[in-house]
Amino acid sequence: MKKFKIAIVGATGAVGREMLRCVFQFNFPFESIKLLASARSAGKEIEFEGHKFVVEELTENSFEGVEVAFWSAGGSISEKYMKYAVEAGCVNIDNTSHFRMDPNVPLVVPEVNGEALVNHHGIISCPNCTTIMMCSALTRLNDEFDIERIVVSTYQAVSGAGVAGMEELYRQSQEVLDGKEPVAKTLPCAGDKKHFPIAFNCIPQVDKFDLSNGYSKEEMKMVNETKKIFNKDIEVNATCVRVPVLRGHSESIYIETKKTIDMDKVFELLGNSTGIDLCDDLANQVYPMPTSFIGDELTHVGRVRKDLYKDNALSLWITGDQLMKGAAYNSVDIGLKMIELGLLK
Ligand SMILES: NC(=O)c1ccc[n+]([C@@H]2O[C@H](COP(=O)([O-])OP(=O)(O)OC[C@H]3O[C@@H](n4cnc5c(N)ncnc54)[C@H](OP(=O)(O)O)[C@@H]3O)[C@@H](O)[C@H]2O)c1
Predict the structure, then answer these.
(1) How far is the CA of 302 from the centre of ligand 1 (A)?
(2) HEC per residue, 245-309
(3) Atom nearest to 163 CA in ligand 1
(4) How large is the average pLDDT for residues 140-166?
(5) CA of 235 to the centre of ligand 1 (A)
(6) pLDDT value of residue 345
(7) Interior angle at CA 126, CA 229 and CA 143, nearest 5
(8) What is the mean pLDDT of the chain?
(9) Measured on CA atoms in the order 232, 233, 239, 240, is the torsion positive or negative?
(10) Which of 78, 92, 99, 281 could bond to 105 as cystine, CB 3.0-4.6 Å?
(11) Tens of pLDDT along 228-257?
(12) Locate the Semialdehyde dehydrogenase NAD-binding domain: which residues (predicted)?
């Protein structure tokens, strides 16, 4: 099997670190790995699985000879530098939001719409973490019952805001335990006017708001990306909330379908879906929680129950490590799917 010269852009970040781990754990065939980050990290040594890597500064010339690059350094970095990688002939799997709604860029969750990869022009986008997990959990139900409407509330971990989000929760928790006032520097959104403590709190804002419609950017990502991935006009109503969990997003999801729902079929489908772990046994209090699944690549589904009033509606609860299933693993899985489809040579 061919081995590829790969790069990880944003390798020192919360997602980038997991990308390196996923390359090894899921056997992405590599000949060499280049770790790229900002000038702040240039020269830093990272050891993994017996390999020693030296982080390099990302520049316009970083991609000469690189065949596949996994990006997670932020949308503005992808916007500025990815064109140089495409020019150098590198295939780019982008974890940022920058290219997601570009009609020329496939937006892919491999087990949902892997076939969209054939239309790539050097850039493939990974959806938003909450969208990946939701679409993965719902894809077989959509095939069978034809989903028309989704109402979702998220419970998003601080690591969704990167290394800075995690540091904020640790530091603020200690400040509260020490009897001090917690100092908020980053959340809910690094670029917004105000910051609020996340320790012992929850914040109904993830990313900035669109004041014209009352939804946050994160909520509108779930709306727009879900339509693109399922390639149909599903109605999505999302409320995204940051909670004081270190790692692992959860979502409470309600769906309405065109066809009547058969719950035996629902459990059969969820029990046999790629990427899904059905974790639902109420008698024994079995349901998914974020701390149970740190570091794994699955979407865990539980609390599956039919609506009390409608034959075409149900609710479920999903949890997953968003740094893995919602970001790093989905990126590497896209690369593996491209190899399987003969799209990386
Ligand atoms: N965290 C999640 O759960 C998640 C999920 C899905 C998607 N994403 C997306 O993934 C991206 C990264 O998120 P993250 O959580 O990993 O953030 P993070 O922990 O803050 O890491 C950011 C990374 O980008 C690098 N970087 C920053 N400025 C740079 C520059 N000018 N040139 C080159 N590299 C630069 C940083 O390098 P230094 O260490 O040198 O600063 C670091 O490696 C974002 O677009 C985010 O929206 C994140």
Answers:
(1) 31
(2) CCCCEEEEEEEEECCCCCHHHHHHHHHCCCCEEECCEHHHCECCCHHHHCCCCCEEEEEEEECCC
(3) 19
(4) 98
(5) 30
(6) 86
(7) 25
(8) 98
(9) positive
(10) 99
(11) 999 999 999 999 999 999 999 999 999 999
(12) 5-120
pLDDT (average), residues 270-277: 97
100 is in an annotated binding site: yes
Q: Which two tokens stand for residue 56?
A: 């390099």
Q: Percentages helix, strand, coil for the chain, rounded to the nearest 5? A: 35, 25, 40
Whether the pLDDT of residue 175 is over 90: the answer is yes
- State the distance from the centre of ligand 1 to the C-alpha of 96, rounded, in angstroms: 9
Q: Which residue type does 96 have?
A: T
What are the pLDDT digits (tens) for 306-345?
Answer: 999 999 999 999 999 999 999 999 999 999 999 999 999 8
Confidence class for position 89, pLDDT limits 50, 70, 90: very high
Ligand 1 — pocket residues by CB below 6 A?
A: 10-16, 37-38, 40-41, 58, 72-75, 77, 95-96, 129, 159-160, 162-164, 322-323, 326-327
- Please count the residues of the chain: 345
Whole-angstrom distance, CA of residue 220 vs CA of residue 311:
28
pLDDT, tens digit, for every residue of 41-65? 999 999 999 999 999 999 999 999 9
126 is catalytic: no
- What are the chain's domains? 4-127+327-340 (3.40.50.720), 131-322 (3.30.360.10)
Nearest-CA residue for ligand 1 atom 32 is 38
Q: Say whether 90 is catalytic.
A: no
pLDDT value at position 331? 98
160 is in an annotated binding site: yes
